[in-house]
Amino acid sequence: MTRVFSGVKPTGHLTLGNYLGAMRQWAAVDQYRADSLFCVVDLHALTVDHDPARVRRLSRQAATLLLAVGLDPELCTVFVQSHVDEHARLSYVLECVATDGEMRRMIQYKEKAARERERGGSVRLSLLTYPVLMAADILAYGADEVPVGDDQAQHVELTRDLAVRFNQRYGHTFVVPRATVPPVAARVMSLQDPGSKMGKSDDAGPGIVYLLDEPEVVRKKVMRAVTDSGREVVYDREERPGLANLLEILAACTGGNPEALSGVYESYGSLKKDTAEAVVELLRPVQERHRALCADPGYVEGVLRDGAERARAMARPTVDAAYRAIGLLPAVSDTDAGVVLNAAR
Ligand code: AMP
Ligand code: TRP
Question: Which of 3, 9, 159, 162 most suits a substitution to test ligand 2, by most atoms within 8 Å of the C-beta?
Answer without folding.
Answer: 9
